[in-house]
Amino acid sequence: MEFQIGDRWIGRNHKPFIIAEMSGNHNQSLERALQIVEAAAAAGADALKLQTYTADTMTLDIHEGDFFIEDPTSLWKGNSLYNLYKEAYTPWEWHKPIFERATELGMLAFSTPFDETAVDFLESLNVPAYKIASFENTDIQLIRKVAATGKPLIISTGMASLAELDESVRAAREAGCEKLVLLKCTSTYPATPENTNISTLPHMEELFNCSVGMSDHTMGVGVSVAAVALGATVIEKHFTLRRADGGVDSAFSLEPEELKALVLETERAWLSLGRVMYGATERERESLKHRRSLYISKDLKKGEVLTRENIRAIRPGMGLPTKYLDELLGRQVSQDVAKGTPLTWEVI
């Protein structure tokens, strides 16, 4: 379950692959979009991701009924779907300069297509991978179209039942996908940690025999760091310059300092996993001398008896282990010994 996206490795034997999702946080400014690219690269992200659609490829130009967001808990309440996507979409002519800037800065860049025309467009830009969004993870035709490119495919699993995921994974593999990552995702914005259920990660990895990761809509970096401990190899987070700047996704997006912390702390979590091991590591061996051990605590003449008044369990650890204390009490020393001498079998 190891493979490459561009020059980056994906898999448990490699540090987590961090994706900064720009989404609509460019606020319809190409200059701001390029600043986001630069900030993501400076923070250490492996990849910058866009979303490729237009309002017309997403929905109908209707502003009432099913097409109007009335949910009072939604970040986007009071908007029609059409107007929301019109505000959030990334103009297709921006994709090339955004991708080029990312490449110049050493990052990969790819996108989430939302229909087949977007896949054709992204193929013309030779993207190194594709992402399927949670709301499209049951769009079998789109999944087949993307999988047929032969490029790595990342699928967010938000809302999908096990049966739906099985159908989507089968469709992807039958269409030619050999490099697959499933991202655990909760499709609420923002998501809460208690509604994230990252214990699903190892189960999903085993069930579908693929790499797994997180599309994380929670605030902060804690959930993503914990996910790495459970096997996440890819972490995707929405990213903006400043939440205070506004934007369709800004409320649950990381700021540059937080993205930098995500990169650092997920790598630390990955490094800490190691292997099953007991006993001193190579780096710990020097510390063994600072354990407690048995020392002579008073000057003794040959033949004197060892008692609790002239033996102490103290640091450093150059004497006999403290477990031998009871066995040594009442024994005689075989030679004169000075206070501070480590107690060894040779002086008994």
UniProtKB/TrEMBL annotation:
Domain AFP-like: 293-348
Family annotation (SUPFAM superfamilies): AFP III-like domain, Aldolase
Matching NCBIfam families: PseI
Name recorded for this polypeptide: Sialic acid synthase
Species of provenance: Saccharibacillus kuerlensis
Record lineage: Bacteria, Bacillati, Bacillota, Bacilli, Bacillales
Encoding gene, per UniProt annotation: spsE
